[in-house]
Design brief:
The chain is an alpha/beta fold and about 325 residues long. The chain is built from 13 helices and 9 strands. It has helices at about 1-5, 30-40, 60-65, 85-95, 110-115, 125-130, 135-145, 150-160, 190-195, 200-205, 225-240, 260-270, 300-310, and strands at about 50, 75, 100-105, 175-180, 185, 215, 245-250, 255, 275. Strands 2-1-3-7-9 form a 5-stranded parallel β-sheet. Helix 3 (about 60-65) links the parallel strand 1 and strand 2. The N and C termini lie far apart (about 55 Å).
Amino acid sequence: MGTYLYADPFEVIYAYDKHYLNPRISYNRDYVVTDQLMTNRRRHEYDSFILGNSRSVVFKCKDWNEHIQAKGTFHFDASGESLFGVHSKIKWLDAQGVRVKNCLIILDYELLSNVKNHEGHIGIKHPAVSKDSYVDFHLAFFKAYLNPIFFIGYWDSRITGKVRRGFDKKFEKRDYRCDPDTCDINYGSAEEEIAAGVYYNKIGDIFYARDERTKQYERAAIYDKQFQLLNDIRQLFRQHQTVYKIVVSPLYDQKYCHPSDRKALCAIFGADNVYDYSGINRFTSCVTNYYETSHYRPHVARAIMAEIYGPPQP
C-alpha cells in the first residue's frame, strides 16, 4: 500500500498537469482524458468533442479542425468505450455548463452493445462522470497493482529502465505520444515503420483471409436500454444545437452493421448524420489501411472526415 501511494503508477491518485508520464504503463484512458479535460478547462474553452473507443484515436483534432468552426477541440474517448460511457460524458459536459457545439461519435457493435460501467482498471469510468463509487474505482487499480507480473515488472522497470521479457504483457509495447491540449494519441513509430516498408513484415501474418463475395452482418446491438441512451444523447444535442456526425467504423472483419441498428441510428439521429463504413468497401478491402485487425490508420479517418464534412476549409 505504501509503495502504491508513493508511486501512483496509474496516475489516478494525485493531480497532474500532464498525464502519460511513463509511456510503458497501460493507463486508464477514460480517467486520463477526463482528468486532463478538468485541468485544461482552466485555460482552454472547449466546445467540440470526439467520442468513441480506441478506434477513434485516428480521428485527430488537428484534422477535424480543418472541417469545423470550433473554439477548442478535445478527444474525449476511452479504451473499450461503451454507450454508457459516451452517454455519461455528454451528460457530464452538459452538467458542467459546457456547450457542445460540434460532436463526432465513432462507434461499432462493441460500443453500442455495452450499456454498463466496466469493472477492470483499464476500462472503469472516472467516478465524476459515471457517478459510481470512488472506493470501487480505486480498488480496481490497487488490485491491478498487486498482480505479481505487474508489481515485479513495474519496480524492475523503475530500476533498470526497461521492461523485461516475461513481464511485457502487462505493459505497452508501442511507442506513443499524447497531446496534452487535445488528448490526441499518436503512434508515430508504427507510421515510421510503415513508411520504411518494415512494419507489416515485423508484425507477422496476422491478417486472416476474408470472403468478399458474401455479405456478413454483425449481431443486433440496439435494444431498449440502447434506445433510451441514444434518445437521451439526441435530446442533449438538440438542447445544445450541436452539429454532430455518427460514424460506424470500417472494421477489418468486414461485417455490416445490423440493418435494425442502422435503421435505429438513422431514426434517432437523422439519416443525413449517420455514416456507415462497415462491411465490404474500399477502406476495409485494403490490408494496409490497418495496423492490425482491430484498428485502422489515420489516413482512413482523414478520408472519412473529407467525405462527411467536405474538403478541408482554408
